Amino acid sequence: MHVDEFIDNKSTDNYVFFVLNWFRAPAVHHARYNNWMRQFKLFCTYNGKRYRVTGASRLGDVWLVADHGREGGYDLRTEIQDITLWGPEP
Q1: 20 and 7 in contact (C-beta within 8 Å)?
Q2: Do 77 and 85 form a contact (C-beta atoms < 8 A)?
Q3: Domain range holding 17?
């Protein structure tokens, strides 16, 4: 499943919808609002381990990092349907 399909699903949690939409926003929005948006962290479980979500690709995958303090980049890129237990807390 492409991340945009997940975002567009009406059953997607509002917080998850909001943060994933932010990751998919154009770079000009990130340049303007990134300092304010840093407060909205997103975490998930993948293969039984908690990760911080740091991005969502136009190719449809989601970026995960094991270090919950890290704000960018990724350790893993995975399909969104393999992720569970989304939320603002690690």
Answers
A1: yes
A2: no
A3: 3-87
Output phi, psi for 5, to 5 deg: -65, -40
pLDDT digit string (tens) for 21-37? Answer: 999 999 999 999 999 99
Q: How far apart are CA 70 and CA 62, in angstroms?
A: 15
Give the integer Cα–Cα distance in Å for 88 and 90. Answer: 7
Cβ pair 77, 5 in contact under 8 A: no
Quote the radius of gyration of the chain (alpha carbons, Å). Answer: 12
pLDDT at 12: 86
The structural domain count of the chain equals 1
- pTM for this prediction: 0.92
